[in-house]
Each structure stands twice: as C-alpha cells, then as structure tokens.
Amino acid sequence: MIPELWTCIFSVLFYYVHGAKLPEPEVKIEVLYKPFLCHRKSKYGDILLVHYEGFLESNGTMFHSSRHHGDKNPVWLTLGIREVIKGWDMGLQGMCAGEKRKLTVPPALAYGKEGKGKIPPESTLIFDIEIIEIRNGPRSHESFQEMDLNDDWKLSKAEVKEYLRKEFERHGYAANDTHHEVMVEDIFQKEDEDNDGFISAREFTYKHDEL
Ligand SMILES: *[C@@H]1O[C@H](CO)[C@@H](O)[C@H](O)[C@H]1NC(C)=O
Ligand SMILES: *[C@@H]1O[C@H](CO)[C@@H](O)[C@H](O)[C@H]1NC(C)=O
Ligand SMILES: [Ca+2]
Ligand SMILES: [Ca+2]
C-alpha cells in the first residue's frame, strides 16, 4: 500500500483514539531546587511536612503562605489520599526532603467551579512548595514490612500485637498484654475485611482512588 494512505489511516485512527477525548488536566511541575543527597522519594501514603506559598495565576496575588500566615509552622499532610487538592497529590510525588517545586495547578485539580475563600471560581493556582521532611505513613509499604515479621505478605494477630508492644515501649508506655489483645481484636474487626484471620497487604494499604 502507498505510504500516504497509511499515514492518512493512521491519522484518522489517532484522531479517534486521542483527538476525540478531552485532554486530561495536568499539573505542571518545575523543580526549583533538588538536594544533592536524597535518601528516599515521596510516594502515596507518605506523610510530608511542607512549607508553601500559593498564588493566583490570574494576577499573582499570594493567597496563602505557611511561613507568614497562621502559626507560621510547616504543615503535615498525607500524600495521595485527597487530604489535599488533587494537584498536590499528583505534583508532590517523587520528591526528596529539601526539594522545592513550583506547581501550576488547573482549576479541575484545585478548587474548580466553586473556588474557596480568597480563591475565585475557575482559578489556576501556582504553588511554591518545599518538602521539609518525609515520614512513612501509617499505611505505607515500609510500615507493613516492618510489621510483617515472617515476610509472608500478611499480618497475623501475633505480628500486630508485637508491633503494638514495640510502639508502646517506643513511646515510653508499659506494654500491657490484655490491653494489646483488646486492641488487636478491634483492629482486625475493622481491617480484616475477608475475615481470614490475617490482614493482607491489600487490606492494609490505602485503596487510592484513581488520580
Ligand atoms: C487579584 O484577583 C483577586 C481575585 O479576582 C482579587 O480579589 C484581587 O484583588 C486581585 N489583586 C490585584 C492586585 O489585582
Ligand atoms: C492493662 O489493660 C487492661 C485493659 O485495658 C486494664 O484493665 C489494666 O488495668 C491494665 N493493666 C495495667 C497493669 O496497666
Ligand atoms: Ca506475616
Ligand atoms: Ca484478611
């Protein structure tokens, strides 16, 4: 077949596959600073401590600065669970502690048609964000591995109890077997969805919505 015809067929197909769909909203990410040393990168379920400034793209007005407003402390957030706007859940992945990024977030991934407080409806927002610290979230893969003593990818009651004992001691409380057993039962009632007596990795980790 002549190449021109292939090109033509291909572009028609391309249109149906890609052109007909609305483009997905995206966060524009610019890395402003990346530290030389990076022990780990942020991901779903991590807890991040951040400082940030937020600006309206329309006229550059700063609507919030964690350094200058409120108690002036950096803020903790859990990544990937919609605790924050979608644009942050998407734009703060794969960051090192100490890294700074500029995110340009379209309204669909921020406050949308409604707006919020000083943010008018349909606003594109610009954030300068610095990650101060990254910690394992309570539901992180690392926490699961730490609890799963025999590496069989599920948590038994004994493993959860042992974890509680260690956590209590780490925080300076006396371990209390009776109390921990009660807690373990309570935890399994909530988390062991299929009632097989184990908390699987799937049952343990967040079930994230699609971003
Ligand atoms: C910027 O836009 C916001 C929202 O429309 C408005 O409240 C604010 O007064 C504007 N600031 C300047 C400096 O124009
Ligand atoms: C241990 O926990 C149980 C149940 O919560 C409580 O009744 C008991 O007083 C605790 N024992 C000690 C020594 O703290
Ligand atoms: Ca196990
Ligand atoms: Ca289970």
From TrEMBL:
Q: Which residues form the signal peptide?
A: 1-19
What domain of life does the UniProt record list for this protein's source? Eukaryota
Domain PPIase FKBP-type residues, every copy: 45-135
Q: Which residues form the EF-hand domain?
A: 135-170, 179-211
Xref: InterPro entries: EF-hand-dom_pair (IPR011992), EF_Hand_1_Ca_BS (IPR018247), EF_hand_dom (IPR002048), PPIase_dom_sf (IPR046357), PPIase_FKBP (IPR052273), PPIase_FKBP_dom (IPR001179)
Gene Ontology cellular component terms for the protein in this record? endoplasmic reticulum
Quaternary structure per UniProt? Monomer. Homodimer. Interacts with type III, type IV and type X collagens.
Q: What does this protein do?
A: PPIase which accelerates the folding of proteins during protein synthesis. Has a preference for substrates containing 4-hydroxylproline modifications, including type III collagen. May also target type VI and type X collagens.
Protein name as catalogued: peptidylprolyl isomerase
